[in-house]
């Protein structure tokens, strides 16, 4: 079960990274953790992206970190607005960095660092607008299974 692996302290660390990453951007970041992924990981991440209504952000700048713990599957998925402007290999670089931590079973640390990496890109392309910015998506970690 995902909640056996991701402790409440881990959840706090992940949510703190999301809040820190979102401070200077209108971008939105979510994390979804489940046990198994019974299809292609990007297909499943796309389903979760839709289930979490991440495509409904004003600037289409949501980023999903998807993890299937037992199946050792991980994907980072960005919406159309961010995908159009991030550098080549951006998602692959984050994935590679996060997986290094996962191999040592340091899930929260890997996610937190990956979230902050994504936040840097979001900040440079989608700066925080004090007047109109609202937190469009929850910062809570969502769990499946």
From TrEMBL:
What sequence ranges are listed for the domain TPM?
4-119
Superkingdom: Bacteria
Q: Which InterPro entries match?
A: TPM_dom
Protein name in the entry: TPM domain-containing protein
Q: Which organism is it from?
A: Pontibacter cellulosilyticus
């Amino acid at each position: 079960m995902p909640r056996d692996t991701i402790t409440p302290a881990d959840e706090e660390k992940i949510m703190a990274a999301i809040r820190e990453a979102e401070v200077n951007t209108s971008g939105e970041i979510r994390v979804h953790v489940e046990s198994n992924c019974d299809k292609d990981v990007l297909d499943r991440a796309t389903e979760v992206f839709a289930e979490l209504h991440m495509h409904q952000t004003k600037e289409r700048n949501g980023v999903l970190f998807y993890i299937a713990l037992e199946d050792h599957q991980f994907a980072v998925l960005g919406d159309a607005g961010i995908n159009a402007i991030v550098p080549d290999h951006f998602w692959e670089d984050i994935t590679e960095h996060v997986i290094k931590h996962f191999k040592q079973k340091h899930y929260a640390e890997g996610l937190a660092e990956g979230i902050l990496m994504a936040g840097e890109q979001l900040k440079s392309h989608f700066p925080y607008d004090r007047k109109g910015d609202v937190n469009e998506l929850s910062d809570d970690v969502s769990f499946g299974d």
